[in-house]
Every structure is written in structure tokens, then in C-alpha cells.
């Protein structure tokens, strides 16, 4: 007989765990190869890692202000909707559902499968079909948990955040010990300008920003946060600083033990590191890394389901996906929607092509969201936000995002063109279906199907009492 709605269960500790758990995932264990390959040298790759961390901090501060100005959940989607209007917000939703999120989830899932199987096949590479099977099993486990309980999903995220920091420590400590002993040969001629290719730098930034991606996750669950005006900025600042320091030390540790060619040749850098530096942990670190990826999958499903939930509530997505399970109080339909696309991308995808494919769309819309912050400030100067960043932060972040997106057309025209096509394909859908339906406010043509699915899944709209 209690009201059905999403409870405020995300405390400061859980918000911090959600951010750490989403940022520290597969990225730091697979992205070093992509960053080094496209930056050309060890020194420039470290500069890219630090620049990506600084850029992430700028973006995180912008989103912290947006989270205190706009009180709805939904992240990028709701910020673009409230500041730039319904068309760009729907294009984001379209690209996020059909390109960004399934590709991102597939990358993390594949990294999970690769690292979990690595100890069983060392020194050989794990068979690709086995990697994909384990990847899908891991993804389905997280999907089931998020459908079952918000509380247990949050508890799992907290526990796995500790595992992630432990995995980084097991890489950083032996690396720093070897560096202190004078093993600096891999840093000689670190800034080799001959290997630097400027038109590949956007891809290096994409790989680095993929590793940091997750600093925006609290904005997706804003309505479920306890004391969001205080906890969003606090969790964002502490978590991003923690991750920047951890990532820089981890990369220095990698390069202390592995040479440039070793990093470029390794499909799983953390495993190659342990094989060379700490053989007694050869079976432990890959499992820790796999669990780290598992936490990132959990955070991704937890937050993106809220985007679909809010978009449905705003009338830009089928109404079924704004409904909540009557007993579990989870957005069950929104959680379950992603699994067919993720399954397809895991079965056919390659990690680095998928990364470039979805990065274009992701950073385009993140840049638009921070542009929306500038617009919102101009339209509502009377609004007193409890957290406010200097204007140069959103301006510089927006310019860098949009410039990187534009430059990426020269770096990887095929994958970027595919991503651009996915975004543009949302135009006819918006004008033929969404815009027309919003104007007429008519009943959805899928009303009967929605009603049957509602009974089958035991879900009802938010804040409706069940008797």
C-alpha cells in the first residue's frame, strides 16, 4: 500500500563509490595502449593522461553546478533538455541508446571477460569466443542485480570501489619500488618528437577520457541522492582528484616495468605488468581488474536506466520505461532495455574501434551540456546556485570538447562518420514521431502493448499507490 517511487538511498559514501566505481574500471587497464599509440611517446602519453584528468575535473565541476541548478535526474539528457531544448536532447537520447551506451558497455564487458580468463590461459591469449561468453555472463549478472534491488546495487558498488583501489595499489607499489631503485631506462628520450602525430592526438584524448569517464554519474541519479546540494560537489571533487593521482602513478608504474613496445603489444597491460614485475600475483591482479570492470558495468546500468526513466517521463520515450516495479522499487523496464544491443555489440565488436565509435557522440553531447550551463546562467541570472564555478571553466571545457570532436574527423573518419550518421538519423524520428506526438498529446499507439507488458513486469508509473 506504500507509494511507488525511487527512494533517496544514495548517501555521500555511495555517491563517492559510484564515481570511483565508474571511473576506475576497464579504462586504466586497456587505455594506456590507445593513449601511447596515438600520442607517440611515453612523455607525451603522460601529458595526455594529466590533461585528460584536468579536463575531467573541469567537466565534473560544470556538472556539479548543473546538478545544483536543475533538480531532476537524467544527466546529460535532462541538462540539454532544460537548457537547449527538446530536439538536441532527443538526438542525445537517440545516439546514447543506439551507439554510446551499448558500445561503452560492450567495451567494459569485453575487458571484464578478457581479464577474468587471463589467469587460466597464460601465457597464451584467451580464446575470443570464451572472452565474449564470459563478458555476456558478467553483464547479465549486473543487469539482474539492478533489476532486483537499488540497495544491493549500491552496496556492491561500494565494495567493488575498494577492490578497484586495491588493484591500482598492487600496480603502483611495485612500480614505485622499482623506480626508487633506479629503473628509469624506459623514460630516456621520453618526449620523442619524431613519433608525435598531431592528427592522432584526438584519439589519444578519447582513450584517456574513456578511462576517466564516469565523473558525471551522480547527475543521473540526482533525485535519489541524499542532500544533493552538498554531496554532489563534495563527491565529485574528492573522487576526481583521487583518480587523477591514481592514474598518473599507475602509468608511471607501467612504464617503469614495461617498455614502449611492450605496452603497445599488450592487449591487457595490467597482466603484462604483473608477469614482468610481480609474478607471485599473476593470478590475483587480473581477477581484481575483472572485478573492477564488473563495478563499472554496475555503475553504467544503474545510471543509464535513470536516463531512459526520465526521458520516458518527459514524453520522449515510450511510457513503459518510466514505470517502477511495485515491490522492488527499481525502474525494471528501463534497466532491461539495453541488453539486446549490448549483446550484439559484444558478439561483433572490437574494443578500440568501439571506443572511437562511441567517443565522438559522447563528447559532442557533453560539450553541448556544458554549453547549456552557460546558456542557463545567461537566461536565469537571478538563480542563486549553492555551487558555482568560474565562467572560464565551462567555456574552456566546451571549446576543448567541440574542438576535439571536430579534429577526430581527420583522425578516424570511418568510425566517426558512423557515429555522426547515428546522431543525424534521429532527426526524422523526432519530427515524424516525437514532435508530432508531443504537439497532439494523443495516446501512444502502443498503449495496448504497454498495458500488457505492465501487467507482465508488475510495474506502475511513479507515485501511484497499489491496492
Give the uncertain stretches in residue-range form.
Answer: none
Question: What would CATH call the homologous superfamily?
Answer: Amino acid/polyamine transporter I
Q: How many beta-strand segments?
A: 4
Percent strand: under 5%
Helix content: over 70%
The CATH C-level class name: Mainly Alpha
Structural class: mainly alpha
CATH topology: Amino acid/polyamine transporter I
Kindly, what is the distance between the CA atoms of the first and last residues, rounded to a whole number of angstroms?
A: 6 Å
The CATH architecture comes to Up-down Bundle
Q: Helix count? A: 19
List the helices and strands and how they pair.
Blueprint: E1 3-4, H1 12-23, H2 27-39, H3 42-69, H4 76-84, H5 86-121, H6 128-148, H7 150-180, H8 201-212, H9 228-257, H10 260-265, H11 269-277, H12 285-313, E2 323-325, H13 332-336, H14 339-348, H15 351-379, H16 392-411, H17 413-424, H18 426-440, H19 447-457, E3 459-461, E4 464-465
Antiparallel strand pairs: 1-4, 2-3
Helix pairs in contact: 1-7, 1-9, 1-12, 2-3, 2-8, 3-8, 3-9, 3-15, 3-16, 4-5, 4-15, 5-6, 5-12, 5-14, 5-15, 5-17, 6-12, 6-14, 7-9, 7-12, 8-15, 8-16, 15-16, 15-17, 16-17
Amino acid at each position: 500500500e506504500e507509494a511507488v517511487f525511487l527512494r533517496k538511498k544514495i548517501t555521500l559514501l555511495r555517491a563517492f563509490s559510484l564515481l570511483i566505481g565508474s571511473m576506475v574500471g576497464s579504462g586504466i587497464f586497456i587505455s594506456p595502449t590507445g593513449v601511447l599509440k596515438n600520442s607517440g611517446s611515453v612523455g607525451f602519453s603522460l601529458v595526455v593522461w594529466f590533461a585528460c584528468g584536468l579536463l575531467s575535473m573541469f567537466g565534473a565541476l560544470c556538472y556539479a553546478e548543473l546538478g545544483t541548478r536543475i533538480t531532476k535526474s537524467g544527466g546529460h539528457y535532462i541538462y540539454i533538455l532544460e537548457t537547449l531544448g527538446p530536439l538536441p536532447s532527443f538526438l542525445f537520447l537517440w545516439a546514447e541508446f543506439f551507439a554510446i551506451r551499448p558500445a561503452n558497455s560492450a567495451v567494459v564487458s569485453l575487458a571484464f571477460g578478457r581479464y577474468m580468463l587471463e589467469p587460466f590461459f597464460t601465457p597464451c591469449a584467451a580464446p575470443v569466443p570464451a572472452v565474449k561468453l564470459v563478458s555476456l555472463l558478467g553483464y547479465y549478472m549486473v543487469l539482474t542485480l539492478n533489476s532486483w534491488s537499488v540497495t544491493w546495487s549500491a552496496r556492491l558498488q561500494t565494495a567493488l570501489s575498494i577492490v578497484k583501489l586495491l588493484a591500482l595499489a598492487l600496480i603502483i607499489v611495485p612500480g614505485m619500488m622499482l623506480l626508487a631503485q633506479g629503473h628509469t631506462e624506459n623514460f630516456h628520450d621520453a618526449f620523442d618528437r619524431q613519433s608525435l602525430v598531431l592528427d592522432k592526438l584526438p584519439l589519444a584524448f578519447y582513450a584517456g577520457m574513456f578511462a576517466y569517464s564516469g565523473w558525471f554519474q551522480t547527475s543521473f541519479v540526482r533525485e535519489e541522492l541524499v542532500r544533493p546540494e552538498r554531496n554532489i560537489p563534495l563527491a565529485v571533487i574528492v573522487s576526481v582528484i583521487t583518480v587523477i593521482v591514481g592514474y598518473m602513478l599507475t602509468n608511471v608504474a607501467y612504464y617503469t616495468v614495461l617498455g614502449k613496445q611492450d605496452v603497445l603489444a599488450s592487449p591487457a597491460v595490467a597482466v603484462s605488468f604483473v608477469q614482468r614485475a610481480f609474478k607471485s600475483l599473476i593470478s590475483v591482479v587480473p581477477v581484481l581488474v575483472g572485478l573492477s570492470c564488473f563495478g563499472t558495468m554496475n555503475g553504467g546500468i544503474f545510471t543509464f536506466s535513470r536516463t531512459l526513466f526520465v526521458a520516458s517521463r518527459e514524453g520522449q520515450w515510450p511510457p513503459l520505461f518510466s514505470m517502477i516495479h511495485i515491490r522492488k522499487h527499481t525502474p525494471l523496464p528501463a534497466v532491461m532495455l539495453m541488453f539486446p544491443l549490448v549483446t550484439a555489440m559484444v558478439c561483433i565488436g572490437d574494443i578500440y574501434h568501439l571506443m572511437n565509435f562511441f567517443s565522438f557522440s559522447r563528447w559532442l553531447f557533453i560539450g553541448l551540456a556544458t554549453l547549456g550551463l552557460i546558456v542557463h546562467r545567461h537566461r536565469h541570472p537571478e538563480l542563486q546556485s549553492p555551487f558555482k564555478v568560474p565562467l572560464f571553466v565551462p567555456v574552456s571545457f566546451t571549446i576543448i570538447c567541440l574542438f576535439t570532436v571536430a579534429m577526430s574527423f581527420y583522425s578516424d573518419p570511418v568510425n566517426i562518420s558512423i557515429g555522426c550518421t547515428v546522431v543525424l538519423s534521429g532527426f526524422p524520428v523526432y519530427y515524424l514521431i516525437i514532435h508530432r506526438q508531443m504537439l497532439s498529446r494523443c495516446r501512444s499507439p502502443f498503449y495496448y502493448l504497454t498495458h500488457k507488458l505492465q501487467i507482465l513486469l508488475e510495474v506502475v508509473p511513479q507515485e501511484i499507490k497499489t491496492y
